[in-house]
Amino acid sequence: MFSAERYSEVLTLLAGLMPEATNHRPAELLGETLLKLGMVGEAAEAFEHAGLKGPPQPYPLLLKAARLYLDAGRMDKALSLAVQLNRHQPGDPAPAFIIASIGLKAGQPGLLVDSIKNLLVDSDDPEHLKLAVQLIGDDLRNARNLTLFAKLRRLYPDDPFIRTTLIGFAREFCDYPILLGEEQALRAEIAAGDTRALAAETPHYNLMWCGDEALNRLATNITGLVPFAADAPARRRTKPHAFGDRIRVGYLSNDFWADHATMRLMRGVLKAHDLDRFDVTLYCHTPERFIGGDAAARAEWGRITRIESMADDEAIATMQRDGIDVLVDLKGHTAGSRSRLMNAPVAPVHVAWLGFPGSSVGVDCDYVIGDRFVLPDSARPHYHEKFCRMPESYQPNDPWTRSVPGPAARRAFGLPTDRFVFSAFNSQRKNSPKGIGLWARVLVANPEAVLWLMVDGTHARNATADFLRRAGVRSDQFIFAPKMPYASHLARVPAADIGLDSFPYNGHTTTSDMLWAGLPVVTRKGTNFASRVSESLLNAIGLPELVAEDADAFVALCSALVSDSDRVSRLRQTIADNRFIAPLFDAERFCRHLECGYRHMVERARAGLPPEHFDVPALAPRTAPFRAS
Known about the structure:
Elements: H1 4-17, H2 25-36, H3 40-52, H4 58-71, H5 75-88, H6 93-105, H7 114-122, H8 126-136, H9 144-155, H10 160-172, H11 176-191, H12 203-206, H13 213-216, H14 232-237, E1 247-253, H15 261-272, E2 278-284, H16 288-291, H17 295-299, E3 303-306, H18 312-321, E4 326-329, E5 349-352, E6 367-371, E7 386-390, E8 420-424, H19 433-445, E9 449-454, H20 458-470, E10 478-481, H21 486-492, E11 498-500, H22 509-516, E12 521-524, H23 533-541, E13 547-548, H24 551-562, H25 565-578, H26 587-606, E14 614-615
Parallel strand pairs: 1-2, 1-4, 2-3, 4-5, 5-6, 6-7, 7-14, 8-9, 8-11, 9-10, 11-12, 12-13
Helix pairs in contact: 1-2, 2-3, 3-4, 4-5, 4-6, 5-6, 6-7, 7-8, 8-9, 9-10, 10-11, 15-26, 19-24
């Protein structure tokens, strides 16, 4: 080891040699010495000088100089060199790393082009891969995340967050080899008593594959949520509160925009609220870019208080000043949620409804709104919330702002006119190996039938096609449907004969859309909220016979329908007959039941009684349609 004095001598010697030197070595030696002394910026200058001396291989020296400039915070020099090096060797991820690092640190998005990001993903350097996560890891539409997280999974096999993130992207892009391998391993671990991996999984993605309510509660990877304290609900309920003549209801969501699925369901309920008895406020944190031209529609939904730009404390104070009696979280553990606001003492009654099909673990809610199908008595041990069960279905629908599609010509969608057509239009992330495997069984049993399914993107379509073919399905038995604007999508639905539900995460709004458009949907009984939704909806439209008891019964039911066109016609006629009289699409009836539930909750709160399970009594059945056909 050199002493400090010796370093100084060497430094002086090399500095004297550099101006007259005709080769790169003295400058390179100087750079190494300066680096050992911790003089990073000066070392970068020396390595740059060495590279410019024209050695046989200047590239490594200039690359080292660029990286040291980056480490020293000399961004202009680092960027200038890195850009030149990237042009010289466009396949090297090292200059791309420097360019991307500067783009992030200096807030220069123009530097973060796809070619730079892709170079980082193609690298095997962990540092490069970690930077790539910062650049694209939140982009659910970028299939490069599959490559990125597969590499990280191999590098860090014991990291549960990398594992569950890889599984999440595999769902988005229908990468069944990854899903099959990872789900099999997860199930084996759980069977052996090891559930630690679930803590790294988000509650929403957990529902895509796991129908066990006890295990669903263990998926607790929830960004920004600090679970409520055990005594918080009691302290909130005993806080002094002034009730008024009207019940003040607050709805919390970032989905208050006309084209969102939530509003296709509940906008009719908002318009139907009895304003003589209820004072309704929408606490909206919807991003401005989604609101667009919704001004006329939003004016019909009630008073809207914008909180998207408010910090949590300010939003909480705003709701507290409004004296809300019942605060309803419409998001739960879904994207963009601010359910953490529910963990403040906002209202004497906190409720979870509609957005998340399960218990909002860690969120202080007194009640969860469901029905006897999605929340049977057997589910009670798996919820901290008490059940408010609606008498017909937990899901509302708006029958006023969408038209009923007419017949759809199959040729317009590339469908055969002489074969039985099943359709599957749920989000492709719901196409689990178990669910799509069930569809494959139906197709193998009925070779004359075809499946028209909505899968978007080259990777997802290729992976889906490969899965189906490996399951014995012929290539002429499936046809991919593109994504379309909502009205156009709804208009094509009647071209199919029967819809197939996803499993274990059922169609929610999608199943309602199919039924609204006149398409019967076959589902199978589930074991948790998310897998029981379509059973609820089918019962509410008067088609309980389309709920199969198990997988074998599902295949048998679908096969029976393929060979019985008269039965299919009768099912369609049932939907047409019931559309404007059955409970499923009756927003006004639903609203009266919902308000009855709110009144019961408030009555208990006013009396100082704790929340308890209860069922909302049903109004007398309708004897006349609520809307003309």
